Structure to design on (304 residues):
C-alpha cells in the first residue's frame, strides 16, 4: 500500500509544483474521508490541485462553476415530467459523481451553498421528497477566493464545519515558479489514475486501522477544551472537530508508514483541520495565530 501512496504523491507533485506539504495535506483529507476546501487568490493552482487529485485517485468527477445565479437544482438535479411515460424522470446533477469540484464556491448565493449540506454530511440528497444515495466514495473539493474579493459570499459556519480541512497554496518559490513557466500548460497533461476507486477505499480502510492511545485522545480533547475556555477569543471546537482531527492525524501517520499515532501527527494537521472552525471564516486572510496559540498552550503530557 505504501507503494501506491508514494506513486500518488509523486504524480501529484508533478502536477502541482513546489507544494509538497499542501499536496500531502490534501491527500490526508481524502484518506480520512473528509471534504476539502482550498482557499487562495485566483491563479494559484487551486483548480489544478483538485483536478489532479480526482484524476490520480481514479475517481469520477465533474467541475461546477459556482456563480451568483447558480440554483440548487443545477447542483443536485431536478425531476422533469415525461409526457410519454406519464412520470417524472430524475436528471441527475454533478453531485452524483465521486468528486464534485465546486469551483469558487463562495461566489454562489447562500441558498445554493446550503444545497450541499445534506450531501456532505449524509452522502445523500433529497429531490422532490425522494432520497437518493450518492456514489461511494464521495467528496466535495471546493475552491474559494478570499472574502475581500468582490462578489463573494461567506460560507455559513455550519457548512464550514462540514469541510474537514481548509488549506491555502500560497505563492510558489522561485525555483518552482521557474519550472511552472517552463512547463507552460503541460504540467497536468500526462496525469493517469494511480489507483482505482476500490483500491482507494482499501487505503481508507487501512488508515482507519491506525491506533490511537489514550494519551493521544486526551491530547486531542485537551486542544478542544482549550478552545472552549473563556480566555480563548475563538469559536469553540465541537466534538465533530475532534473526530476530524483524529481521523486526519491517522491519515498523516499512515502516509508516514506508522500504525500508531504520535503527538507530531496531531500537530501536523491541527491548523488545516481546525483554523477555519476557530475563526469561522471571518478573517480576511488565512492566519495560523489561533491554532498555533492553542498548540503552544496545551501540554502534550498534561493529564485531563
Amino acid at each position: 500500500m505504501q507503494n501506491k501512496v508514494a506513486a500518488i504523491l509523486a504524480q501529484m507533485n508533478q502536477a502541482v509544483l513546489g507544494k509538497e506539504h499542501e499536496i500531502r495535506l490534501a491527500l490526508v483529507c481524502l484518506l480520512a474521508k473528509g471534504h476539502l476546501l482550498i482557499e487562495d487568490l485566483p491563479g494559484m493552482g487551486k483548480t489544478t490541485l483538485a483536478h489532479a487529485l480526482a484524476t490520480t485517485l481514479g475517481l469520477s468527477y465533474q467541475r461546477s462553476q459556482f456563480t451568483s445565479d447558480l440554483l440548487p437544482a443545477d447542483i443536485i438535479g431536478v425531476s422533469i415530467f415525461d409526457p410519454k411515460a406519464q412520470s417524472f424522470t430524475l436528471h441527475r446533477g454533478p453531485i452524483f459523481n465521486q468528486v464534485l469540484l465546486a469551483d469558487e464556491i463562495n461566489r454562489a448565493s447562500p441558498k445554493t451553498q446550503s444545497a450541499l449540506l445534506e450531501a456532505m454530511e449524509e452522502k445523500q440528497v433529497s429531490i422532490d421528497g425522494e432520497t437518493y444515495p450518492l456514489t461511494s466514495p464521495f467528496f466535495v473539493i471546493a475552491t474559494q477566493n478570499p472574502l475581500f474579493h468582490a462578489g463573494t459570499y461567506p460560507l455559513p459556519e455550519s457548512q464550514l464545519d462540514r469541510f474537514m480541512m481548509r488549506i491555502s497554496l500560497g505563492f510558489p518559490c522561485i525555483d518552482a515558479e521557474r519550472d511552472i513557466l517552463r512547463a507552460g500548460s503541460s504540467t497536468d497533461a500526462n496525469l493517469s489514475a494511480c489507483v482505482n476507486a476500490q483500491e482507494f477505499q482499501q487505503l481508507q480502510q487501512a488508515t482507519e486501522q491506525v491506533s490511537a492511545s489514550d494519551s493521544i485522545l486526551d491530547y486531542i480533547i485537551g486542544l478542544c477544551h482549550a478552545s472552549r475556555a473563556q480566555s480563548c477569543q475563538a469559536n469553540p471546537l465541537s466534538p465533530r472537530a475532534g473526530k476530524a482531527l483524529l481521523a486526519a492525524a491517522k491519515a498523516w501517520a499512515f502516509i508516514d508508514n506508522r500504525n500508531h499515532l504520535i503527538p507530531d501527527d496531531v500537530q501536523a494537521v491541527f491548523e488545516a483541520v481546525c483554523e477555519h472552525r476557530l475563526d469561522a471564516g471571518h478573517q480576511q486572510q488565512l492566519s495560523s495565530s489561533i491554532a498555533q496559540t492553542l498548540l503552544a498552550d496545551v501540554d502534550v503530557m498534561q493529564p485531563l
About this structure: Residues 11 and 26 are 14 Å apart (CA to CA). The two ends are 36 Å apart (CA to CA). The beta strands are 35-39, 61-65, 77-82, 87-92, 99-103, 124-127, 130-133, 139-144, 163-167.
